[in-house]
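Field log, afternoon session.

UNIT: design team B
ACTIVITY: writing a sequence onto a fixed backbone
BACKBONE:
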């Protein structure tokens, strides 16, 4: 009888210990699970915050660019038009100076055209009205007039089906890439390709110096690249770079699979 009591006590004690261990394990598991869920929640909140912040930054940027566009069109444009009127009046008053005014008149005409095109390129409302393809063509033509570099444009004559935010983001990144190529690439040719029949893609390539992408990112010189990548992702676009020292650079902006 005594042996049975001992055996019973051992079994009960063992079960209690196992239950206690199981309780501790379950408690640890639930605590870890809550911790993981909390970390996921915090990461999601951080991601959403960054998206909202970047969206706000882009909204402010577009507002600023639209203001500059209106300033160029309304004020600078009017001043240039006034200069044109004054020149025309001089031509009427003093016909003998027509040959001397011809170069000034030609330069003024080019300046008025450049200001008008630049004003359009900065205004997102004009982009919305004309569409991405026409604005890419206009920007390429504007830069061709400087005759600093040959710009070759190819497209499939199809306007990309994109949201307003995607159109604005794609065009701003396109402008930034063109500007960087003109400033740093030391290229002779820039090739631009726009495809939209099946899936949107915007490709820019140059025959310039190229660069070491990994080293650029490590050295802290890739802030612009990181910024364009984040801005593209914000609009559900994928930004890819293919480059090497001495082999030029190719930048591709395309729709994601999402």
């Amino acid at each position: 009888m005594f042996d049975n009591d001992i055996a019973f006590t051992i079994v009960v004690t063992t079960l209690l210990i196992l239950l206690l261990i199981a309780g501790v394990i379950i408690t640890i598991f639930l605590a870890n699970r809550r911790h993981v869920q909390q970390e996921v929640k915090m990461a999601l909140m951080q991601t959403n915050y960054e998206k909202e912040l970047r969206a706000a930054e882009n909204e402010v940027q577009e507002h600023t660019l639209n203001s500059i566009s209106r300033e160029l069109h309304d004020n600078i444009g009017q001043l240039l038009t006034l200069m044109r009127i004054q020149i025309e009046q001089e031509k009427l008053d003093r016909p003998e100076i027509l040959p001397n005014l011809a170069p000034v008149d030609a330069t003024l005409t080019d300046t008025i055209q450049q200001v008008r095109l630049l004003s359009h390129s900065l205004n997102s409302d004009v982009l919305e009205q004309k569409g991405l393809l026409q604005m890419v063509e206009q920007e390429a033509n504007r830069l061709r007039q400087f005759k600093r570099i040959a710009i070759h444009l190819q497209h499939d004559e199809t306007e990309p089906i994109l949201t307003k935010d995607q159109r604005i983001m794609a065009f701003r990144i396109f402008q930034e890439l063109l500007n960087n190529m003109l400033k740093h690439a030391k290229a002779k040719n820039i090739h631009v390709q726009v495809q939209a029949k099946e899936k949107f893609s915007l490709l820019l390539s140059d025959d310039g110096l190229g660069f070491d992408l990994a080293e650029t990112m490590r050295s802290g010189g890739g802030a612009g690249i990181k910024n364009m990548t984040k801005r593209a992702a914000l609009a559900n676009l994928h930004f890819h770079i293919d480059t090497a020292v001495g082999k030029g650079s190719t930048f591709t902006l395309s729709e994601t699979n999402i």
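LOG NOTE: The first strand starts at residue 150 and ends at 155.
NEXT ACTIVITY: expression trials, pending approval
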